[in-house]
Amino acid sequence: MDEADVVIVGAGAAGLSLALLLSAPSAAPVRPSVLLLDAPPGPLRPPPRTWCYWERGPGPYDSAVTASWQRLRVHGPTGRPTVGEIAPLRYKMLRSDAFEEFVDRRLAGRPAVRRREVAVEEVRSVPGGAEVLGTDAGGAPVSVRTRWVFDSRPPAALPAARTTLLQHFRGWFVRTDRPAFDPGVVELMDFRVPRPAHGLAFGYVLPTGPHEALVEYTEFSRAVLSREEYEAALRAYTRDVLRLGPSEVVATESGVIPMTDAPFARATGESVFRVGAAGGATRPSTGYTFAAVQRQNRAIAAAVRAGRRPLPPPAHSARSRAMDAVLLRALDTGRVDGAEFFSRLFERVPAARLLRFLDGGTGLYEDLAVGLHAPVRPMLRSAAELPRVPRRPFPAAASPRKPD
Question: Whole-prediction pTM value?
């Protein structure tokens, strides 16, 4: 049986950054041994993906960041563009493979952290801690005894919720023959795409040079599309809206992010905790996760080093979650037109303030000021009916599987 003070299950954004924080030099009284368990290559290991987040000035992962910007653009459904300056914030693009290489380089000099490829099958509480059971790449059984477990694996099913939408997308990494992109501006939401029967759709462009960009087609709706439907939408968007001309698709990515007012359990036992999206780090109204993961992980690392029970703090304030629940209900019922709603916010609220609002970094007065630009009557109606809306399991037929 293997042993470690801390076991981290999953080597995504949450697991890797938590391992890095727990092993950082510190004068704290506790210096834990850490075992990071990553799934062997295969269906349990997620493919490379892109994370975006914003922060003020330089950040700890800047050397791994692909690109960053201080201007964001939103195209409304009529085609009218709004460009917002977000200084002193920067909007940053981080590829998962670059982040993993970044973390591996730093962990190489920290012997307190070990990494193993294990398909984890069970995490169970035992006296004084927890036990993690699984199999290695060769099929041999693995058992690990530990004081604390931080599990970032997606739950088998989403918790019951009053409203759950899926943010699902497919992206092309494109290279064009002519200079087709402005490397200084992110196309955050481009609503010049056909509106789906339910929910909203938009284009998203992260330019990394005049000839290169990640171009995505994204929907907020109840069910994912087929691969053919995403591809058709991307072809139409790049040809008819962006007018890229001759171009090459050099890579693709796709994903599904639940946007839900469901309460996520942050602990499943006295010594077992959920982290990352599995622990509720995803902002329900936007799908952004990375920055909240970092906040939670800093608190976890501080608690472990201080010898306290490291229950992750809530990723988002109660006020933020309440506002998101109202917005999700308003979008899902069709009372609020999503394209008009987000376009109006970016037109009327300074972009830097709006990003701080979306990250939960604004106070009550600023929240109320932003709320004044929302359609008041539909939002009030949605807020009034929420207490009477029962929480239901997410339908299995529309489960958040990866797009084909």
Answer: 0.93
CB atoms inside a 10 Å sphere around CB 198:
14
Q: Which helix (H) or strand (E) holds 358?
A: helix 351-358
Structure tokens at 201: 């759709």
Q: Assign 132 to helix, strand or coil.
A: strand
pLDDT for the residue 41: 87
**How do the domains of the chain map onto residue ranges?**
2-48+96-159+263-306
* pLDDT under 70: residue ranges of the chain: 27-28, 396-404
Name residue 256's beta-bridge partners.
168
Tens digits of residue pLDDT in 151-177: 999 988 899 999 999 999 999 999 999
DSSP per residue, 238-287: IIIIS---SEEEEEEEEEEEEEE-PPPPSBSSSSEEE-GGGGT-S-TTT-
Nearest to 17 by CA among 393, 372, 309, 291: 291
Query: What would the CATH number be for the domain defined by 2-48+96-159+263-306?
Result: 3.50.50.60
Which letter does DSSP use for residue 109 in this model?
T
